[in-house]
Specification:
- The complex is a heterodimer of chains A (about 130) and B (about 260).
- With about 130 residues, chain A is mainly α.
- Chain A has a single domain, classed as Winged helix-like DNA-binding domain superfamily/Winged helix DNA-binding domain (Arc Repressor Mutant, subunit A, Orthogonal Bundle).
- In chain A, about 55% of the residues lie in helices and about 10% in strands.
- A three-stranded antiparallel sheet of chain A has the order 1-3-2.
- Chain B has about 260 residues and is an alpha/beta fold.
- Chain B has an eight-stranded mixed sheet, with helices on both faces.
- In chain B, helix 1 crosses helix 13.
- The longest helix of chain B is centred in the C-terminal third of the chain and has 16 residues.
- In chain B, helix 10 links the parallel strand 7 and strand 8.
- Classes of the chains: A mainly alpha (about 130), B alpha/beta (about 260).
- At the A-B interface, helix 2, helix 3 and helix 7 of A face helix 6, helix 7 and helix 8 of B.
């Protein structure tokens, strides 16, 4: 195994499984991993071959075999950061961005606001867009 | 592939939306295919500069995020709806699309209460670039750093950080520059707005570039003429020879030069 692959694999396995990756997590990743995630975000969904092609010719790509890249992507998927479809060379991957939780304000505040809006809408259906 | 340009400021009131609308319009005037997305869902406003209100904006980004329509349904071609303002009229038949956020009170509170899936937003932006064959997609972000702004910075090819010559802005900008570097944003520039006319813009530029080690793409003067415009028109198209417009043009040229 190459040094780069070991390092990245350790980095991924060292993190707890999560419901996706947040942009804040991205800032903490090593540069090669960040490059992979960023490329996937831009392409939305990326086949294994396309990813390998994109990494080939770069310094990171030269330090990693196709098998090692496959294992790394599999680990990222197990981690919850990627969503994978298909297997091995036919696989494709998407970044799984973590959904931001909704407001932590007390539900009562939202209910009261909803009630007020509803009353206003009933009284004057065009009112709130003219704020 | 089209380039994503995020326009960000650490604090509110920097003139971010106004500057974004003007840069995007100037780039469109150069014959480029341009999209503008208002991701400032909590406090949307850029639609006003393009002469839109709740009724005329049609579908919104909020509806797309709730899977109620496609991103293509939301994209409104400004060149077909320019109205009578002299600046905006120049955009007739230009390739400029706006993806507005809703100004309906219920829609805004709904997003604040329930949030949304950032995967849908990202997929929508990338789809828009492909469907409209955009050269540039400008993202008008909410001021400050939160998950949405970080996502837009992450996927950007170019980041424009707008600041005023003010100590609070200086410190906040330092944080944003550090984050953008940590996220490996390929190109980053600063744009200074509301610079007092008694100061030399070249000196402001030099000092800020030295402080952040980032290129300053333009220094826009503080001007009552812009306030008088009241966001009713695209000022740089209405008054192309005004010093503020010339500074914005310089920023637009810098963006195009990144090709």
């Amino acid at each position: 195994m190459s040094g780069l692959f070991d390092r990245l694999q350790n980095e991924i396995e060292g993190r707890e499984k999560e419901d996706g990756i947040s942009p804040l997590d991205l800032a903490e990743l090593s540069a090669p991993l960040r490059k992979i995630i960023r490329l996937m975000l831009r392409e939305v969904e990326l086949s294994f071959d396309r990813l390998w092609e994109a990494l080939s010719g770069t310094e990171d790509g030269e330090q990693m075999s196709k098998d090692e890249l496959g294992k790394m992507l599999e680990t990222l998927a197990k981690q919850g950061w990627l969503i994978s479809r298909g297997e091995k060379d036919r696989a494709s991957y998407k970044v799984n961005l973590r959904r931001k939780p909704g407001s932590s304000l007390a539900q009562g505040i939202w209910s009261a606001l909803d009630d007020k809006i509803e009353k206003r809408e009933k009284a004057d259906p065009k009112a709130d867009g003219d704020e | 592939m089209g380039k994503i340009v995020s326009i960000h400021s650490f604090r509110g009131g920097t003139g971010k939306s106004n500057t974004t609308a003007n840069i995007a319009s100037l780039v469109a005037m150069e014959g480029k295919r341009v999209g503008v997305v208002d991701t400032d869902i909590q406090s949307p406003g850029i639609h006003v500069l393009f002469g839109l209100n709740e009724e005329s904006m049609g579908h919104t980004l909020n509806e797309f995020l709730r899977n109620e329509c496609s991103i293509g349904d939301v994209a409104l071609q400004i060149g077909e709806n320019v109205g009578n303002e002299p600046g905006r009229k120049k955009l007739k038949d230009k390739y400029l699309w706006l993806i507005p956020s809703s100004i309906n009170l219920r829609e805004i509170t709904d997003i604040l209460k329930n949030s949304y899936d950032p995967n849908i937003l990202n997929a929508g932006l990338q789809t828009l670039i492909k469907e409209k064959e955009l050269d540039y997609l400008f993202i008008d972000t909410h001021p400050g750093l939160n998950e949405e702004t970080l996502l837009s910075i992450t996927i950007s090819d170019i980041l424009i950080i707008i600041l005023r010559p003010d100590q609070q802005d200086f410190q906040g900008t330092a944080v944003t520059v550090d984050i953008a570097r940590a996220l490996d944003v390929p190109n980053m520039v600063l744009a200074v707005n509301k610079a007092l006319s008694r100061y030399d813009p070249d000196q402001i530029r030099e000092e800020i570039e030295k402080t952040y080690d980032v290129k300053v793409a333009g220094v826009m003067p503080l001007t009552e003429d812009l306030v008088e415009n009241q966001s009713k028109d695209i000022f740089s198209l209405r008054e192309p020879d005004h010093p503020w417009s010339k500074a914005v043009k310089e920023i637009a040229e810098t963006i195009i030069e990144f090709d």
